[in-house]
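About this split. The held-out portion is used to measure sequence recovery: a designer receives only the structure tokens and must propose an amino acid at every position. Recovery is the fraction of positions where the proposal matches the reference. Here is one held-out target exactly as it appears in the evaluation file.
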């Protein structure tokens, strides 16, 4: 007991939003100390990092630009681990970077995971984090972390609804008394929207574009609802017939059409979650509405679309990209208060 107290005193406990697109790390009492893409570059056929440190932003800059000898990997797909060994390397790098000089003391770690994650997938996250250097690992469901991060009254006997649209999953949940009353974890989110943009431009313009270009197009002219002034963007890529560079002009109405199937699935998930929710909590939601978090919350007009389809007030959280990470940080800061929102953990 004394040893554990001593380790806790000197350790820098960490909260991790282990996202498909980006990983954010909070340190207890310090807030967010790291935010980098969930990307790793290795020498093909090995797990050896390029230059010994090609993780995060350094690896992202290599996407689509590497020779055959180098492979750029996103080791998480749809919010869960797709490549265990590479995830372990990535987590280890981020933990060491966030933990600073305290290499001789292993940190306690809280990791946010999708609410629909299986027991096997949970075990993979725990084991990966432990092998990457964590002393103790506990998990928290992403919608709960997001709700805490944006300041919803999760401890009170009243309904709060969070929609967290990340890179790999969209998490929808109604929360009351520190528990998730109704939820849906949908493996349709930012990555699927990027793929929809890529497919549309290929089908309509015979132009192949990369993942990063699709992301920029979505951010710059994408929308979920008609804009007062529609936008136009120049898009560069490779002609699928001539295999030569080419530029086309793409309108925001076209990108909205491309995104419609993904957005319709999200709307169905929100309505389905509302249908699972008890009537007394419906009464609360009529008053307090739905809060949006995650990178997808920044899509133009998505709040108006959800409000129109549900009839509820919808607001975008302040700094929605960091909501889950900030939630893990608040749990670390107030561990006694939020202990029962954590999933069973594993101690090393």
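Reference sequence for scoring:
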């Amino acid at each position: 007991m004394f040893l554990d107290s001593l380790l806790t005193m000197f350790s820098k406990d960490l909260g991790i939003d282990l996202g498909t697109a980006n990983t954010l790390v909070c340190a207890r009492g310090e807030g967010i100390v790291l935010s980098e893409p969930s990307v790793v570059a290795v020498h093909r056929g090995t797990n050896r990092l390029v230059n010994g440190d090609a993780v995060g932003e350094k690896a992202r800059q290599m996407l689509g630009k590497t020779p055959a000898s180098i492979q750029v990997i996103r080791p998480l797909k749809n919010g869960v681990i797709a490549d265990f060994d590479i995830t372990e390397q990535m987590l280890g790098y981020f933990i060491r970077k966030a933990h600073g000089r305290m290499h001789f003391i292993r940190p306690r770690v809280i990791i946010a995971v999708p609410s629909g994650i299986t027991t096997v997938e949970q075990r993979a996250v725990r084991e990966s984090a432990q092998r990457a250097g964590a002393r103790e690992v506990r998990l928290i469901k992403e919608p709960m972390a997001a709700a805490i991060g944006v300041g919803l009254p999760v401890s009170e006997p009243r309904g709060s609804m969070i929609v967290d649209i990340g890179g790999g999953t969209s998490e929808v949940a109604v929360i009351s008394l520190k528990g998730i009353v109704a939820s849906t974890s949908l493996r349709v989110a930012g990555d699927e929207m990027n793929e929809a943009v890529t497919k549309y431009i290929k089908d309509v313009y015979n132009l192949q574009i990369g993942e990063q270009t699709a992301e920029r197009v979505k951010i710059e002219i994408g929308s979920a609802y008609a804009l007062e002034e529609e936008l136009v963007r120049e898009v560069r890529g490779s002609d699928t017939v001539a295999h030569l560079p080419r530029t086309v002009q793409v309108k925001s109405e076209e990108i909205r059409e491309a995104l419609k199937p993904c957005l319709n699935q999200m709307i169905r998930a929100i309505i389905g979650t509302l249908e699972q929710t008890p009537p007394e909590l419906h009464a609360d939601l009529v008053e307090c509405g739905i809060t949006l978090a995650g990178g997808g919350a920044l899509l133009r007009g998505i709040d108006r679309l959800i409000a129109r389809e549900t009839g509820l007030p919808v607001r975008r959280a302040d700094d929605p990209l960091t909501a889950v990470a900030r939630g893990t940080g608040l749990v670390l800061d107030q561990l006694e208060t939020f202990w029962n929102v954590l999933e069973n953990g594993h101690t090393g």
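Annotator remark: The chain has three domains: 2-145+323-347, 158-188+263-321, 190-258.
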